[in-house]
Amino acid sequence: MKRRMLIAGGALAGLAGAGWALRGHAVAAVDRSLNRFALDPDAPQPDAEDLALHRALFIADLHADSLKWDRDLLSRSDYGHADLPRLQAGNTALQVFAMVTHSPVNLPWRDCLSASDPNHAAWLAALQGRPVRTTRGRAYFQMDLFWDTVLRSQDHDGPELRPILNASELLALIEARATGDTAIGGLLGLEGGHWIGLYRSEPGVIEAEVQALHDRGLRVFAPVHRFDNPLCGSSEGCRRYGLTPVGRRALREAEAAGMVIDLAHASEEAIREAAEMLREPFIVSHTGVRAVCEAPCRPDRNLSEDALRAVLDSGGVVGIGYWAHAVGAGVHNIPRVMAHVMEMADKRGLDPSAHVALGSDFDGSVATQISADELAVLTALLRRAGGGFDEQAIPRIMGRNVCRLFATRLPGGSPTMAERVEGALAAGFA
Length: 430
Ligand SMILES: [Zn+2]
Hints:
This protein is an alpha/beta fold. It contains 15 helices and nine strands. Strands 1, 2, 3, 4, 5 and 6 form a six-stranded parallel β-sheet that branches. The protein has a three-stranded parallel β-sheet with strand order 7-8-9. The termini are far apart. Bound molecules: zinc ion (ZN). Zinc ion binds near residues 191, 286 and 361.
């Protein structure tokens, strides 16, 4: 009897093991098929001067969704877009890791996305053994994963993942990297606070949710993703409303707590209303612009001229993406879109190159046209683009603009801190 039980137990364990292995293959297959990489054949090959400049830069990227996937960020993977070894190879110094928790599938018969559409993020969570039932659960799971990666990176070959929670830690990272430290700074970002205000919104509840995210380390707060939620209408939602009263409370709390407000994916009305309401500069972390958007670029997904003006007038920063739905097919569109933002800034009497940044959307279920480990292609592109892309503009676009904004906005941040950060960048980098 005992022996038979042992045999049955062994068979069950074997089946479970086989199931687990199959699951791993399925997750990898989904990851491979959704996070493709397709370098434009016309992309420039970086020469010695491009590489020398690229290695001398402090590079910051406003948006990667790598925490969504079951890949160990400490190990180099041969699929997906980004992990610490590949970010290091591409000389990225600071990366915002955003958390996607709900992504409706585009239904072919509709031209908008809704919360009730089939939800790819929930299927993926189920496949990966992550929290399935709530977006809040999925967000907190990804934050735990970030902190686990931070800890493990301290006792592991390869670059350390160093969390950036305040302006002093940003300054310390810049100073450390200037002396050869290979640590990569990581910030946690949220892509859609869908659960906030969904069931409860009495006084204090919304504020407590935002504060809890802050306490767990969240520093970049994007209220909405690709569908209208209780906080805010989305640029691809079916109703595309502005900020709701709950959304206003959440943004006010997030701004006061020293989080950077990210209006990527927000409806035009929401961006206009947020611009009126917010006191501090805000960002749009990963986008293209509608005025320079040729198919397969998706106009709704990207910034209208009014929305772009609103971000610039706040003193904020726009992260330009590398994938075709944001900028169109071909890497030469990346500087073209950046140049449009610079022209608009110039027309508004602003410093043209002070408001453009990188927003790769690595691992965001997009096919990027620049890879994390060969980011020098981007430096080569900008050097060859001419126009406003001069020696002063390139380091700003590649990272300094983000550092200045974070040094002002993060806890402990101020214009004085921004000056110290600028000084450290000038002393240690191109
Ligand atoms: Zn996104």
